[in-house]
């Protein structure tokens, strides 16, 4: 398989995630964009695992092991992130990230 | 172009379109459902690259758990369901940044990787498990500890504490007070517990 295709897929997912993080107002939608970026990273890790396997070999399967770690950390991140969003909603009655500007100035 | 390339191209097109819809959809629930498609496409890409365990873990963890958690988050925060403006004033800046980033990444990928090929022989789950529980054992335990801490932390954060700020879903108290006061002032003979009868008698 050509290495260009999975890497292009990852770049597309990551760019879409960056756009979502910068432009979305709802905090839950920002979290979804972060999930897209994490998925892009895991695709890259698995693709580079395959690339390294053709060159020098990867006896520790480090690409796939790291992708698994990234998935677990992403699951933990979305749990804590949603708890923070719920706390923000309870205290300020909004999930608009532009309104959470208490420490801005 | 070989058959695995075509499969990967299909995952690229489907997942890329779904990802773009996730960040541009005007309906928040539609965005969450497009996220399902994007994450399933990522799982398909894992399968085509020979990472079978990761593909099914992706389906279970992300499509099964994380998206449901996000939908619960949307419901609990009473996000306005339905089409509405979800973007802030940074939109042009965000488009410029993400398109520039994509162009930079594609230039780097094409110049450095070129036409290199991937080894897509499937990694057996038994091999991955053996490596994970022997060579990666300590990072794996740290990961379990991190998940436990994150779970407890999320519970502590989301728990409602005594005397915390006003609840946004409680209406003004005036309406309830008027409802309680109305039967008492309508008729002096209405005993407690017979509010309906008292109201009917006292009604003009």
Textual characterization of the structure:
The complex is a heterodimer of chains A (105) and B (204). Chain A has 105 residues and is mainly α. Chain A has one domain (4-99): Helix Hairpins (Orthogonal Bundle), CATH 1.10.287. Chain A contains three helices and no strands. In chain A, helix 2 runs antiparallel to helix 3 (62-92). The longest helix of chain A is centred in the last third of the chain and has 31 residues, at 62-92. The mean pLDDT of chain A is 91. Chain B has eight helices and no strands. Among the domains of chain B are: 1-82, Four Helix Bundle (Hemerythrin (Met), subunit A), CATH 1.20.120; 135-188. The interface between A and B is large, with 71 and 94 residues.
Q: What is the CA-based Rg of chain B, rounded?
A: 28 Å
Q: What is the CATH domain class of the domain at 1-82 in chain B? A: Mainly Alpha
Q: Which CATH architecture of chain A?
A: Orthogonal Bundle
**Number of helical regions of chain A:** 3
pLDDT below 50 for ≥5 consecutive residues: which ranges of chain A? Answer: none
Mean pLDDT of chain A: 91
Strand count, sense and closure of the main sheet of chain B?
none
Strand count, sense and closure of the main sheet of chain A?
none
Strand content of chain B: under 5%
Number of domains of chain A: 1
C-alpha termini separation of chain B: 86 Å
Shape of chain B: globular
Largest interface: A-B, 71 and 94 residues
Tally of alpha and pi helices of chain B? 8
How many β strands of chain B by DSSP? 0
As an assembly, this protein is: heterodimer
Element-level helix/strand string of chain A: HHH
Secondary-structure-derived class of chain A: mainly alpha
The radius of gyration computed from the alpha-carbon positions of chain A, rounded to a whole number of angstroms, is 17 Å
């Amino acid at each position: 398989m050509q290495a260009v295709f999975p890497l292009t897929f990852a770049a597309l997912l990551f760019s879409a995630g960056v756009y979502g993080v910068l432009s979305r107002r709802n905090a839950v939608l920002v979290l979804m964009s972060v999930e897209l970026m994490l998925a892009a990273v895991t695709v890259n890790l698995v693709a580079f695992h395959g690339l390294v396997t053709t060159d020098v070999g990867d006896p520790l399967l480090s690409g796939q092991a790291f992708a698994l770690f990234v998935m677990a950390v992403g699951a933990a991140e979305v749990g804590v992130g949603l708890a923070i969003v719920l706390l923000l909603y309870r205290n300020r009655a909004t999930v608009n990230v532009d309104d959470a500007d208490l420490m801005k100035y | 172009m070989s058959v695995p390339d075509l499969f990967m191209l299909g995952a690229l097109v489907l997942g890329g379109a779904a990802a773009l819809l996730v960040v541009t959809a005007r309906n928040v629930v539609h965005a969450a459902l497009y996220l399902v498609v994007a994450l399933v496409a990522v799982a398909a890409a894992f399968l085509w690259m020979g990472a079978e365990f990761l593909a099914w873990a992706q389906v279970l963890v992300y499509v099964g758990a994380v998206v449901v958690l996000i939908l619960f988050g949307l419901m609990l925060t009473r996000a306005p369901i339905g089409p509405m403006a979800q973007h802030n004033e940074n939109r042009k800046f965000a488009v410029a940044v993400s398109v520039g980033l994509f162009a930079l990444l594609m230039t780097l990928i094409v110049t450095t990787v070129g036409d290199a090929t991937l080894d897509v022989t499937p990694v057996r789950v038994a091999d991955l498990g053996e490596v994970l529980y022997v060579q990666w054992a300590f990072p794996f335990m740290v990961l379990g500890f991190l998940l436990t801490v994150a779970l407890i932390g999320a519970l502590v954060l989301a728990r409602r504490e005594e005397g915390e700020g006003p609840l946004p879903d409680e209406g003004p108290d005036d309406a309830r007070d008027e409802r309680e006061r109305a039967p008492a002032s309508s008729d002096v003979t209405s005993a407690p517990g017979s509010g309906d009868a008292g109201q009917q008698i006292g009604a003009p």
